[in-house]
């Protein structure tokens, strides 16, 4: 971790250069095509507050927290109205039961692995972008960027149980959206549309 003592401008430049690929990757999963703008907003805000960063080891978490807020701001600005989710339909859905019932890959011993093998990185990102930000954000930050649930709760300023509930519902909704995306894009073999 580089937070140089050679001056704040140089230290920030080195930190930004080091963290930029991770921030862009995270932002692409959170806001899709607006990722570069979100990262630019994040770096501008981080530069303005760089003197507040006391511990260089905390820099990734600090930058992630700023980026998450920038992405949330973009989501709020772009949302015309909140997406309504039928929580009961999410809870009842099971991707594994659906795969076994529909049997999209006849004669296979590993149905769920065959199903998952059909998805590439772009498909996963497309499915993520279908999720409301409320559920997409915890999935990306915790499962894809490796932060702890506790760290995300601190970033968002919400109780730990709230993040855990959003993760649970987010996983279920992601599974459901994967199935629907696979049906729509023809990733399933042998399942009538």
Automatic annotation (TrEMBL):
Signal peptide per UniProt: none
Coiled coil segments of this chain: none
GO molecular function: DNA binding; sigma factor activity
BP term (GO), one: DNA-templated transcription initiation
Residue span, RNA polymerase sigma-70 region domain: 17-80
Record keywords: DNA-binding, Sigma factor, Transcription, Transcription regulation
Ranges of residues in domain RNA polymerase sigma factor 70 region 4 type: 123-172
NCBIfam families referenced in this protein's UniProt entry, alphabetically: sigma70-ECF
PANTHER family assigned: RNA POLYMERASE ECF-TYPE SIGMA FACTO, RNA POLYMERASE SIGMA FACTOR HI_1459-RELATED
Family classification: Belongs to the sigma-70 factor family. ECF subfamily.
Protein name per the record: RNA polymerase sigma-70 factor (ECF subfamily)
């Amino acid at each position: 971790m580089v937070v140089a003592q050679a001056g704040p401008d140089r230290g920030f430049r080195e930190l930004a250069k080091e963290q930029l690929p991770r921030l862009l990757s995270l932002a692409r999963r959170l806001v899709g095509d607006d990722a570069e703008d979100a990262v630019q907003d994040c770096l501008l805000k981080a530069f303005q507050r760089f003197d507040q960063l006391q511990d260089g080891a905390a820099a990734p978490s600090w930058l992630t927290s700023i980026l998450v807020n920038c992405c949330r701001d973009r989501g709020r600005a772009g949302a015309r109205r909140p997406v309504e989710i039928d929580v009961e339909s999410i809870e009842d859905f099971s991707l594994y039961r659906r795969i076994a019932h529909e049997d999209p890959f006849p004669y296979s011993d590993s149905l769920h692995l065959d199903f998952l093998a059909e998805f590439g990185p772009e498909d996963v990102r497309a499915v993520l972008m279908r999720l409301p930000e409320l559920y997409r954000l915890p999935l990306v930050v915790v499962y894809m960027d490796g932060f702890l649930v506790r760290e995300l709760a601190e970033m968002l300023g919400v109780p730990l149980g709230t993040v855990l509930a959003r993760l649970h519902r987010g996983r279920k909704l992601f599974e459901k959206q994967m199935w629907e995306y696979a049906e729509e894009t023809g990733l399933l073999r042998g399942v009538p549309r």
